[in-house]
Records
---
Amino acid sequence: MAGAKEIRTKIKSIANTRKITKAMEMVAASKMRKAQERMQSSRPYADRIRRVVTHLAYAHTEYVHPYLVQREARRVGLILVSTDRGLCGGLNVNLFKAVLGRMQEWQQAGLEVDLAVFGSKGSQFFRRLSGNLVAQATHLGDAPGVHELIGTVKTMLDAYQEGRLDRLYLGYNRFVNTMTQRPSIERLLPVATEASEEERKILAHHWDYLYEPDSRPVIDALLTRYIESLVYQGVVENVACEMAARMVAMKSASDNAASLIDELQLAYNKARQAAITQEISEIVGGAAAV
Amino acid sequence: MAMTIHIDIVSAEAEVFSGTATMVFAPAEMGELGILPRHTPLLTRLVPGEVRVQRDDGREESFYVSGGILEVQPHVVTVLSDTAQRAEDLDEAVAMAARERAEKALSDAHSAMDQAQAQAQLAQAVAQLRVLERLRKRRR
């Protein structure tokens, strides 16, 4: 009966694991809904500010902001958004793979790479790789606020403004739907915006804004806010991705646990039956000997 | 038909208003601005205060913004605010409490940083109360 007992303990422990994964799945599902709402509600701001910056890029401003100027690239900055916690399938790994691929391209082209990382998974990974980590922020929680991101973003923006960086990219997971999250790397600086065909016609002539009080502080404020809002959008989207990926990963873990339990149950029944049969045959054998 | 201008008011959290207007008033850094259709392009920062939108049917809508950036194109006005609310949704009790808190923080402030922050909060609370005040006057 020893085999049966072992199997029974195993079944019990798997059932406990399933309870945990099931609970995590449900928590992730409800958090994902909230994260998706946040993602959607921050979109109008991002869209509008992108439109304004597009206009600005076409204006013939007297003060040309460094964010709008293409410089020869020598050093590249990358802001990477990762999760704080694991158990979310291949979400982080896929993103890191994409980022490493891109970093290799840059290094082959003779560019150096500086990293700023959100989320402890990313900072652990790139510290182990001895990547050039210049800033990081971890444990932002499920509802990160813009003010929590500003410090890290500012480090990179300052580096760009002082000429230590010539390009700035943002790497994060784009939320396509619950099943699909796509790693994406976008350029933040210099600002790359494209106006639509008809807008370009309107903006084509030579014009400039009126500024109050002065062009410099206004454009500075606008562009800084623009980058912050893009990074915020990326972070919020990454949270939604994390929750979706975790939900899917935990669902498949629960399913696997269920099928494992089924298999073990069958093995247990067989072992129990064999033990009973053996016992009976022993009794019968003993009775015949008497 | 009167000429109209499209206006979008967004905050970091949500789209607050989007529609057409005959005239828009906004609290710019250098004083209040009145914007009519075909205004020349303009870019300015906003201070805490009231954005008023005169609709083409003569109604007037009022919004509180806590600061941000205003962009004017001849046919589009964009208000990128940090936080924005319809004036009717403002809560007078909350604004009063915020003002008291800010005043207290201002008197207790030790560093310049604290003081600047308290001042900004005070300005926002006072602006909210002023918006409410004006709203009440117009209702009468």
Note: Strands of chain B lie at 5-10, 15-21, 23-28, 31-35, 42-46, 49-54, 60-65, 68-73, 76-81, 84-86.
---
Amino acid sequence: MAVIEYIDAIRLAMKEEMERDEDVFVLGEDVGVKGGVFTTTKGLLEQFGEMRALDTPLAESAIAGVAIGAAMYGMKPIAEMQYSDFMFPATNQIISEAAKIRYRSNNDWNCPVVIRAPIGGGVFGGLYHSQCPESVFFGTPGLKIVAPYRPYDAKGLLKAAVRDPDPVLYFENKKSYKLIKGEVPEADYTVPIGEANLLREGEDITVIGYSLPLYFVEQAAAELAEEGISAHILDLRTLQPLDKEAILTAVRKTGKVLIVHEDNKTGGIGAEVSAIIAEELLYELDAPIMRLCGPDVPAMPINPPGEKFFLLNKEKVKEAMRHLALY
Amino acid sequence: MKPIVEIVIPQLAESLVSATIDKWLKQPGDRIEMYEPICELITDKVTAELPSTVAGTLAKILVGNGETVPVGTPVCLIESDAAPQAGESSPNGNGLQADAPQHAPALQTVASDSGDQSMRNRYSPAVQQLAAEHGIQLTDVPGTGLGGRITRKDVLAYVASFKANGGAQIAQPVDENETSALSQVRSSGIHLSNMPAIPPIETQGSLIPGRGEYFIDVSPVRNTIARNMRQSVTEIPHGWMMIEVDVTNLVLLRNKVKDEFRKREGINLTYLAFVLKAAVNAIKDFPIMNSMWAVDKIIVKRDINISLAVGTEESVATPVIKNADHKTIAGLAREIDDLARRGREGKLTLADMSGGTFTINNTGSFGSIVTNPIINYPQAAIMTFESIVKRPVVINDMLAVRSMANLCLSLDHRILDGVICGRFMQRVKDNIESYTLDTKLY
């Protein structure tokens, strides 16, 4: 297996799916000629032509609307929001149309659209290039949401999303693009939507997270192992629907749980995960459920000290994990 | 000494995680001005010069030409011209991040400090469940958590050691300690050493061992009672008095008519019906007893609606006999029977409960001889009728055995005073004592 970067895993998934199925096409701002601002769609225009790598106007509601319409007509569009921060003009299309069409039409229509959006900060992007909008869409039945951490899952989940008959939001972490590398098989494979993945087995604490913060969690776990603290790490991979069984099994292992994500704490994925644990596992908890998340401030600051304050890092995660282990 | 400042690879572009040093423009010992380029960088996206963030002298190059390092890595050290300042970012360049791990050592000391036992008795649900499952006395388990807390792992380790030692080992020393300690303390009296040690199986009966209490949810009824009682005792200055009534004639009267009454009416003829009639007639003579306090005035009610306290084991209700002054003794007996029965069956309606102006409680029915009742807010008074007991009484300087009962009255002292209440109670007493064998029930 080749070790490749996260961004290449995403590009490869799109390329292979477009080769496999000619109904698959990409659309978004600068995805064609430029190959995407992050080079995620680089080479697709050259290989598949301008009818399958569409450069769109700067209008996210149009990107989502066109993709949703095409999907309802049987195409398999992959719409790119250049930054997830720009996704909000498309929220009405996504929440009111894509998420509801199957229900609204009593199964006559469905909408196999994939909407990719880069999330997360730490790239000196400031207010409009750093947000994590997953909590905005999280409580919407009818949407599936995935947020891969490893390149393996980035590729497998994107392929699964393209083949899924319903709308899938695909949140890729932009800081992970070049930072996270991992083994990815060359053969065709998918990662099932709705299944979490155990990253590391441990005895003392359970850490549940998704996307980039798991990088810090894994680093911290390796260092804490030297202190005699062993961490059980669960990668949610899919945020909607949550893999409840995996969450409960992972928490049962240690009775102590820390939930980590970059999106801010209030109303985030961690709130729902902790509610599930509280509902199902009260009598197996050995410590209060803990959350380590972004602070409840309006947005990621642009100034470097502010950005560092906002972002999670290995030290912050390690301290929280140690605190829970010692509790 | 001049402070040494690190120059790190900055975040030159979004999504950039590393950069390569193309060529150093300055060498150790060279003078460097603020923002002066010190080296050239190559990245995936851009080629750029790296400017110095301080003025000073290049002290040491940490990353050589052609090397690729992650963003944030220090590439050189510069001896800064600036005077040393407290709070200047430390050489590890993690100014803000450095704050985060500072708590960690403190935590460790807390945890390892065996002196702090503040969390010793705080058991998590997991610990309680495991202890119940394995029949463990948590007091025997050493706690290694924060503040001496027993963690889930502590219990599991304790269970494991218990099993490893064949079960008996752990239990044995505990028992021995207990018996020796007890026999030393108790040298006489009950031999506690003969008492069987409490088997763990019994302590887990409640599923949460070690709890000496359990909780009852406050029902809506209980809540209402609590609210009314509190309102009454906090708002109303209660006064209290008691008088003694000779009910011998009443007893004779009731004994004479009760069987026939039962046959005719199908219900019991209780003493309460007579007492009610006596009280209602007294209220007619002293209407102020039938009133309520309204801060700048006293509202006297024309209708005499008697609230009757009807108790069950869980609660008490006060259904109302409306216009009690219009009713005969038989009519009151019928109302009492109806309200008491429906009260016990829990079938009283809100309409049954409202409009009361004076409360009477038949406390004698539960054997009491004196009570100090709480006024049924917002009424002005409440009267109780206590147990009838036979007692030697002096009448005309002669001893006689008479059936006696007490009447107690709690009064709103804002409205009522001793004299008026004394007269009222005297009137009730007179009314009761004037029952004769000829008294008509209808």
Note: Confidence is low (pLDDT under 50) at residues 86-113, 168-206 of chain B.
